[in-house]
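User: I'm new to structure prediction. If I give you an amino acid sequence, what do you actually give back? Let's try with this one:
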Amino acid sequence: MTGRIQLLLVEDSQADARLILEVFKDERVAVDVHVVRDGEEAMHYLCRSGTYRHARRPDVVLLDLNLPKKDGREVLAEMKASADLNSIPVLILTTSQSEEDIVKSYKLQASCYIPKPMDLEQFSSIIKSLDQFWFHNVRYPSKK
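Assistant: Good question. You get back a string of structure tokens that encode the predicted 3D arrangement of the chain. For your 144 residues, that looks like this:
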């Protein structure tokens, strides 16, 4: 794939979203980040409906599980049930350390499950590792 990676960040915590964006900026990550704050908004973006009808299809989704309106578990299930969306890698980044959430996420075909660390330096390190692996090493299909 050529060009910049399109990332949909589904995160209701403004502080976490700001930190992720700051790390990407500091690391000069070649990624366009589109932020939505809840699960319903995420599905509108992914389905390109309403105000998102001209949205670019994301190459990857970074998804929190604990979201308002529609939680991340529901978003993941809907994405993986959709023929149009099921090929998009979904990276779970959440505060939940629940074994049930981990198992369910992988059963729903999440690409990875990352618990959010409470330590700022560890959080930053995780975001940097996402950059190294998902945005530098992984190949994505050509845009349709």
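You can read the tokens as a compact description of the fold. Here is one thing that stands out. The helical segments are 14-26, 39-47, 72-81, 99-107, 120-137.
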